[in-house]
Amino acid sequence: MDENRIKYLLDRFAENTITGTEREEMDTWYEHFDLLEDDLHLTYVRNHEVKLGARMWQKITKKIDYKRQLKVPYRWAAVVTILLVSTWLMVAYRQSIYQELYTLATKSVEVPKGKMLVVDLPDGSKVWVRSGSVLSYNYLFLGEERRVDLTGEAFFEVEKNPEKPFVVHAGDWNTRVLGTSFNVKALPDLEAYEVLVKTGKVQVSNSVDVLATMLPGDRLVRRGQELYRDHRALSLYTDWRGGSLSFDNSSMEEIVWYLENYFKVEINLEAESLRTHPFSGDFTGLELHQILRMMQELYPFEVEPLGVKSILIKEK
């Protein structure tokens, strides 16, 4: 789509005169376009604001001429009132346009069980998204940061841009970087969060405090109310991109989440005493029944088939 057509559609959209067919055309453009170097969409939104401001100023000057017979204090009080209303209208206009653009350009990637997807972001960054995970992002990257939202696990290779930091929002954790590679795990239902840095420098924070500033090999973990930091071998936490299935002191309920998504099964964990019990091991290349048998040798429990793709784990 050429530039004139894009401007035409944005004009129609901003004036609320766009037809259903034109709206579908604009939606299709947002679905497929690559970010332009001159940020055409943002530039044009700003142009709309300038035009709106000019129209408002014309109305203000006409209002002043009309009220020249009024006394000076009353006349300028009217001007101030009009300016305040005009400013509010411009802010509301800008917010509505940006909100609409943000909604149109938001994309959510949900990875099916047994799969792994590689997502190329519009800024050149690359994300490996693990099975059962959901990655959401706005491919206009509006605002002062490049924000993505994650539930599950993903590995990020972030393109450097000092002027626009990259932020991964996962639960109540925000992982902020300029250009680096790192792994993020966020399982809100299990209250399990983890960040591991491969290259560069990463800052992790919540809504209140900065939790840690991390360098390569650093890992920050939260399980429930427990928060700790350590230094780990990178391969154990990043090789899953190649199909490995390894655990390092992971709780049983976390392992169940991974096994469900890896083998495309449903696992009911009835054994309450097992939920937080830690397990470690490399299970790459093994079948599900082999993995469960190895775990039973470390901590006795019973496995009961419930169907073709469903099992029950209970106390022994």
UniProtKB/TrEMBL annotation:
Species, as recorded: Reichenbachiella agariperforans
Matching InterPro entries: FecR, FecR_C, Ferrdict_sens_TM
Transmembrane segment boundaries: 72-93
Gene3D superfamilies named among the record's database cross-references: 2.60.120.1440, 3.55.50.30
UniProt keyword list: Membrane, Transmembrane, Transmembrane helix
Domain FecR protein: start-end pairs: 109-202
The protein's name: FecR family protein
Lineage: Bacteria, Pseudomonadati, Bacteroidota, Cytophagia, Cytophagales
GO MF, one annotated term: sigma factor antagonist activity
